[in-house]
Structure formats: C-alpha cells, structure tokens
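Exam revision sheet. Question 4 asks you to relate a sequence to its structure. Input first:
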Amino acid sequence: MKIIKSVPLIASALALSGLLASAAWAQKSAIESIEEYRAMMQDGNPAELFEAKGEDIWKTQRGPKKVSLMQCDLGKGPGVVKGVFVELPRYFADTQRMQDLESRLVSCMETLQGFNAAEIAKTPFGKGEQSNVTALATWIAAESKGQKFNLPQSHQQEKVFYEVGKRLFFQRAGAHDFACASCHGTDGKRIRLQDLPNLTKNPGDGVGFAAWPAYRVSNGQMWGMQQRLNDCYRQQRFPFPGFGSDATVALGVYLGVNGKGAVSVAPALKR
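Answer key, structure tokens:
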C-alpha cells in the first residue's frame, strides 16, 4: 500500500522538476535572446551619431570666447583624448576637485569657451548644452574603447572619494530602504530577465561602469554616467543628485576602481 501511495508523489515530483527545468530554460533563453539582440544592434549602434556630433563640438569654436575645446586637459595633457576615459574620475590640480568626464568637460567649457558652468549643471539632461556634454562624453569614451580601466589612486582625494563612494553605494534610505547594493551588491541577481552585475568587484569586460555612456533603445536616448546614476537614485526614491556633485563623482570612483582591468566597450547599447 505504501508503494502505491508513493506513485502520485513521485509523479508530482517529476512534474514539478519538469516545470522548474522548463522555467530555467525559458529564463536562460530570454537572457540569451537579449544578448543576441544587442549583438545584432551593435553594428548599427545609434551612439555613432553622437560620437560624430561630439567630435565636431570638440573641434568647433563655440561659446562667448569663440574657441574650441582642443586645449581641454582631461588628465593626459591639453587636447589628449585617447586613454583618458579609462582613468576618470580623478583629481585635477587646476580646479582642486575630483571630477568625472562630464563635470571636467563642463569646467573646460567654462574656462576655455566662457560658458556658465552653473547654468549647464541646472539644464535637464538631453537639453541645450547638456545634450552637447553627452555627445562630447560619448566621443571621448569611444576613443578609449578596448582599453582597460585603471583609475589613479595616488592622490589623497582619490583615496578619500573611493571610501566615500563605497559608503554611498551601501547607504540604505528612501521610501523603499534601497541602496545601490540592493541591486548591484551580490552575484546572481537579475531584473526583467536581465542580469544585474555585482559592482563591488570587477564585473567583467564591458559590464557596469565599463559600458556607459550608452544608447538606450527603450527611449531612444544617449545616456552618460551622470544620467545613469541620476536614474538609479530615482529608482531608489532618493532626491536627485546635483549634476557633477561630489556624491556622483565619488560613486564613479568607487565603481571605476572596482572595475580595474575591465575593458571599456563604451559607448554601448542598452535596453
């Protein structure tokens, strides 16, 4: 009698096992499909249009002073763009500040061309000079594609900002008690069938920090790292951080240092 009673249990167990296997297969297939879609789109990544715009803006005489940005020092000397993206954020002696690519570009636009940095910082993403900053960042990032991240940590401020960024990454607050680490603090997490990289360590080539700026297919927009971090704060129900704020730069330092050795694929293609 015991054997007879166990037959339905065995059948149920087998059925459940089959369902779980099917679910796992479907999930894996969805993830693979997303990656295949990205690979197909990459050859015609619309980011290339922003790259071309950014290069043109870099070389064009603009602003109240009618000069170009070709003397802008992004960390390797005036006018040098190759290799700078994978070493930012970093400390700049002339501004005595830690700056990422976008905030450094705004500083150059102010000092060299005469633009008002505060006004640019207040401009919404995708509007006015903010749109130009994104295009510039896209082109400059592309000039370092294939290179490995190696953010400097020799200056005291660079070390301090890493530690501040680490604290901000794990800080829980907001209406849902979220932190950056809620989504990106451990291995094996995903959302909407997409893997969420663990950003407390090197997540791999072209993943996380090494993929932005990126073109967002879902809304047809080009996003730099400042907008990416801004949207992360939005999803956590935090107040929006100021453009180029110490908080966003510190997070960039933390993510960039953790990603040391990762190969940059920016500008990438995202959902």
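Marking note for examiners. The chain is about 50% helix and 10% strand.
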